[in-house]
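User: Some background: our group keeps a shared notebook of sequences we're curious about, and every so often someone picks one and asks for a predicted structure to add to the entry. Today it's my turn. The entry only has the sequence so far, pasted here. Could you supply the structure so I can complete it?
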Amino acid sequence: MTAYVINYRFGFLEILDFHIEKVKKAYPAYFGTYDRMGELTAWLNKIENLFCIGRNGQHRYNNMDHSMMTAFCAVDLLLAGSADKEHIWSVNTEKAYHEKKINCLKTTTFSSEKPCL
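Assistant: Of course. Here's the predicted structure to add to the notebook entry:
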């Protein structure tokens, strides 16, 4: 649907081919070679017409707002004729949005104001 809207409403995109890969219950895993994501990102950014967006596209734990923001950024880049994808990868890098990890086994005091989980 999106390709149809961009092509026929705006008249500037000719779609030659596309691929959709649907994977059930895919979820980012932060172990193994995850510390080499910078290398992978640099390699992916060299592919001019590839825009990695969303949770699975960036292999990053995003909430829905951040996932949609990566899509909006990709559209802005396409409309501007730009292939600079650094802005897309910078969505959700602020520590304020990351979930805090609490080790409940090491918590010795509990209160109703600050639940363990």
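Suggested note for the entry: Residues 26-97 form one domain. The chain is about 40% helix and 0% strand.
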